Amino acid sequence: MIRPFLIALQFLTRLPVRLTGELSAADLGRSLLYYPLVGLLLGGLLNAGAWLLASEGPILAAALLLGLWVSLTGALHLDGLADMIDAWAGGRGDRARTLALMKDPCSGPQGVTGLVLVLLLKFSAMAELLKAAPFEAGTCLPLLLAPLMGRTALPLLFLTTPYVRPGGLGAALASGLSSGPAKAVLFTVGLLVLLGGGTAGAVGLVGTLICFITLRRTMINRIGGTTGDTAGALIEIIETVTLVAIVLAAGS
């Protein structure tokens, strides 16, 4: 049990976890089942940061929390988002060109613009959340939900979507993922979010599903499936949509 969780931590965060030895497809597939738990851990660390910054203004607190968030993940998923945006923009609808552009390590103006917009939306949403409900005690639920929903989407993605780069890490993840346990994890997370998350949980879950369906359809139409970059982009977009949707719902 602990090894798949540590594999998930190693792949999704920059926390000091380094496993030795060869990782089998079964190990990698099982690690996907623990991605939601990694999301909860990240959400817990963000809440701890919010608690430490409770005496600061919401703008400064949101900026520091965003810095913490990016540091914890090493900007790994942001890199995937930039690559996907550049490839979609420069691929001009062509599958082969899109896949080739996603392997280019350089970011173009479209990718940079996308990163700025996503980070700006996250920052603004967190500032609004902290301003509306200053963090004094307890939990800032949206800061738990956003990383949880983003990483819960990955088992669903690999369960339902072909991986289009043969031999890649994602191919091993997909081949080692067992359908039954994955469905059980997805159902459990969805139920807990609905029962324990109140209005914010319902809004976050609905936003996640709409976002997932839309992005998955886009991936299928353009490249016939998913890659590591599109998986990372999915995390970032779902996190952002979750935060913004909860803020908008609270203000309506």
Mind describing the biggest β-sheet? none
Count of distinct structural domains: 1
Q: From the alpha carbons, calculate the radius of gyration and give it in angstroms.
A: 18 Å
Rounded to the nearest angstrom, the distance between the terminal CA atoms is: 43 Å
* Residues in β-strands, percent: under 5%
Q: Percent helix among the residues?
A: over 70%
Structural class: mainly alpha
Low-confidence stretches: none
Order of helices and strands: HHHHHHHHHHHH
Number of strands: 0
Q: So what's the overall shape?
A: globular
**What is the helix tally?**
12
Task: Look at the structure and give the mean pLDDT.
Answer: 90
Give me the secondary-structure topology:
Layout: H1 2-12, H2 25-32, H3 35-52, H4 58-73, H5 76-91, H6 95-102, H7 109-132, H8 141-160, H9 169-176, H10 179-196, H11 198-223, H12 228-251
Describe this structure in words.
This protein is mostly helical. The chain has one domain. It has helices at 2-12, 25-32, 35-52, 58-73, 76-91, 95-102, 109-132, 141-160, 169-176, 179-196, 198-223, 228-251. The radius of gyration is 18 Å and the shape is globular. The model has no long low-confidence stretch (mean pLDDT 90).
Features:
single chain, 252 residues, mainly alpha, 78% helix, globular
